Task: inverse folding
């Protein structure tokens, strides 16, 4: 039996090992590598040439969508299945635009994950809990883009989709690190009032009431990460 060769990339060791253990039980699947960062994932895909890469969206450094975009750009034969802690239709749409073959919530059961892997190995796409051919996926993407009521432009393929401007993302990343408006203004070289205006805009776009809710909202979607150092998320 020809086995599906795959690699698993997730920065949470316990979750990653759980996925590896579940997949290794299948007679038609061979896990040939695992790692924890986007940069290492790309090198592993280049060197091992797996059929499929199971990638966490929210990776440190280069995120899962950026890795996906690089795999497509470099015309590597590996197909990417993205796993997300937050299953959002707009994120699924952007994952498809970036070139992912599948986009699944981390809550997915082992058998559904295995079935998704087998589907994309056969050339199908699994997005928004649906199985598509290439033509069907293109039609779905077009219909979703027409149906959205948002006027926000989609970011470039490979960049994490979010509704914020670059400056708003800079402010949000500072808020995530617990900085006050005064500290943010000093760091970014803008006025205190401008920081307040950006924070207000962030709360409005997220539909939340305070900074804490905004941080939780962004963290759940993988738009920012908690850091132990001063590395920026933008």
Result:
């Amino acid at each position: 039996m020809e086995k599906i060769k795959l690699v698993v990339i997730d920065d949470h060791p316990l979750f990653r090992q759980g996925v590896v253990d579940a997949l290794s039980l299948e007679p038609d699947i061979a896990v040939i590598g695992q790692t924890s960062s986007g940069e290492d994932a790309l090198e592993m895909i280049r060197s091992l040439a797996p059929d499929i890469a199971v990638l966490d969206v929210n990776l440190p450094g280069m995120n899962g969508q950026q890795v996906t975009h690089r795999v497509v750009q470099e015309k590597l034969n590996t197909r990417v299945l993205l796993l997300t802690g937050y299953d959002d239709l707009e994120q699924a749409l952007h994952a498809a635009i970036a070139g992912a073959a599948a986009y699944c919530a981390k809550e997915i059961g082992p058998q559904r994950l295995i079935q998704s892997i087998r589907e994309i190995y056969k050339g199908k796409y699994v997005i928004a809990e649906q199985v598509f051919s290439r033509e069907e996926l293109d039609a779905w993407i077009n219909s979703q883009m027409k149906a959205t009521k948002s006027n926000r432009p989609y970011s470039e393929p490979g960049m994490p989709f979010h509704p914020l401007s670059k400056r708003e993302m800079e402010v949000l990343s500072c808020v995530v690190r617990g900085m006050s408006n005064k500290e943010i203004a000093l760091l970014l070289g803008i006025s205190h009032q401008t920081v307040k205006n950006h924070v207000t805009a962030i709360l409005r776009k997220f539909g939340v009431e305070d900074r804490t809710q905004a941080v939780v909202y962004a963290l759940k979607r993988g738009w920012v990460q908690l850091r132990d150092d001063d590395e920026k998320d933008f």
